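Hey, I'm writing a tutorial for new members on how sequence and structure tokens pair up, and I'd like a real worked example in the thread rather than a made-up one. If someone can provide the structure for the chain below, I'll link this post from the tutorial.
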Amino acid sequence: MTTVNSINTYIVPTAANEVTMPSQPCFLGILAVAVNTITGNGTVYLLGDTDLGAALTEKFDQNADFNPGTSAGAIFTAPVSGRYFLTSNVTFKAVTAAMTLNNCAIHTSNIYHLYPLCNPGSFRDTSNYTTLSTAVVADMDAADTAVIELQISNGVGDTAGVHGWNNSVDNTSFGGSLLC
């Protein structure tokens, strides 16, 4: 059984009965280049903010619901109401011992999904990098949006940055998919 209309195929089963849904919302954006000195003294940075750094590079956007860079950050807009699996991985760079984490969240239209609060200065590596990852199942209505909001405090000025993707352990990404 294949579900189609006159233009699109919506559900495609394989011979082994696996099902793919080519129009199912699913996206992944990566930060291809580092963004320097965007937080550290309490400044809020929205990942993908084109005014303060760089847009994300779109790896895939299955239903065209993801904008990888705007002045309001990289934005996913829910096309339909449902439960969405959202994930992010953020590697901060130039983290000092004094820095603390004030806010690092997946922010949807109606709720902040906070990362576990921590002190990035206390667990930075020898290169002064700290990586935080999170995943949430968010209840989103049609037209709700999701962005990644970052804020580090207690630095001397905005001296911390976000590390770009480099095919090793350090990477920054934002992704998601409609579950149901």
